[in-house]
Predict the 3D structure of the following.
Amino acid sequence: MSLRFLTAHYAISPQIKAEDMPGLAEQGFTGIVCVRPDGEENDQPDVATLGVAAEKSGLAFAYIPVRSGTTPDAHSVSVMRRTLAEMLGPDRTGKVLAYCRSGRRAADLFELANAPTEEAPASPRRFDVVVVGGGAGGLAAASSLLRRRPDLLVAIVEPSTEHYYQPGWTLVGGGVFEAQQTRRSEVGLIPRNANWIRQAVTAFHPDRNRVELGDGSMIEYSALVVATGLKLDWAAIPGLVETLGKNGVTSNYRYDLAPYTWELVQQLREGTALFTQPPMPIKCAGAPQKAMYLACDAWRRADVLDRIEVEFDAAAPALFGVAAFVPALMEYVRGYGIDLQLKSRLVSVDGERRIATFERTTEAGVETVERAFDMLHVVPPQTAPDVIRNSPLAGQSGFVDVHPDTMKHTAFANVFAIGDVAGTSNAKTAAAARKQAPVVAENILSQLSGRMPDAAYDGYGGCPLTVERGRIVLAEFGYGGKLLPTLPKWLLDGEKPSRLAWFLKEKIMPRLYWDFMLRGRELMVKPDRKGQG
């Protein structure tokens, strides 16, 4: 029998049997609720038999049938509310198990019964750990926690029903992957023992150990993990939103646009192609130029590269933030004939006229330059989400203010951050979140046990710079630009383009993401023990 606790006092399960009752009583349950109508399946135990078995074991029993595929009606919700009040008792210390065929209707009925009403405002549900965000960092952290402590009451707050392997979008835009390969249903990725709250967080109240949800309700926590990711601010560039996905304007930073990138690359046989990179911080700082290198490689293979003027406009003062990898990248810039414009920031787009306007900083000052284009690949400015920037958790940068080693908040000891939303100086990549997850998990368990968190993150970030189809410069580095290669240099020299790195990117890394990272199966990510959070 597989139980899943939605709170410390309410669990759901698939169909149970009469012989399960004594064991449930021994586990401390005080009441059983059948949410499944009699006769749904031929081999289904009837309610009368289960009710008698429950009473013999000293368990209260209630029958609140909800037909499969329907939403519980108002009467069922009202009955469930009264039943819970009786079974949990006046001090709400009882323990209730509700079951149906899969547990879903039992969960839905509980959620509706606990929704606030004018007569009975809902009291906050409490969890050991609340994870805000069901992306790469949030799922990895939750899975790592539950691998270590399966009995933890963990909630994942995530409104999206789809999950995306965003590192794959570069390969979609390069014609290597199909977009569908990078998308899966969120429900299939939520850890089995976790509670999925399908809402968005609208406010943080760390002084009360609460987060506020979109429906106005609150949930309480003993520890909080913030994993919201960052905000892609498309609207920050005037004219961009109106022309995205048409007029030759595209971006690999969106699932629906990455296929358009490849379509434009295939269609363009002469003209001007512009690629942009905004000021830091951004998600995967190498991705803007990866799009360009794959496009140039495709044009070279089609023997049209010499008829296409390629320009890379980067707001940064250098091609890449870690100097060790720049020489190999510059060889490709020169080999593809790319016009490299540093300290050049895209400030507006006129899609109808196909004009991109840049502000460029030169020795003479700032100048405005208009560039006509046939293809424009844009990477938008990126900030912390509004709900983070406007919360007590934000530092001066707007991102969650955490210690860079322990990932623990500088002011709130039971708050941690993971992934892109963390206000740390590491590269914002999925590889960084993979290394952060066990650090966050171990430090939360230390915090809950009254010990000082001591697991440490070294700033590791991995950036596979896809310089051509079949070769990658695998940049791996930590805080301060320190090189942190995973494999020995004789096997893989990350400062040079490599076919092995391409194999890892195309074949190994997606599996490492879906089947290991998101499942809490930690491979080569054991934390150091030197944090001073």
Notes: The two ends are 41 Å apart (CA to CA). Residues 234-378 form a domain with the FAD/NAD(P)-binding domain fold (CATH 3.50.50.60). The longest strand covers residues 218-226.
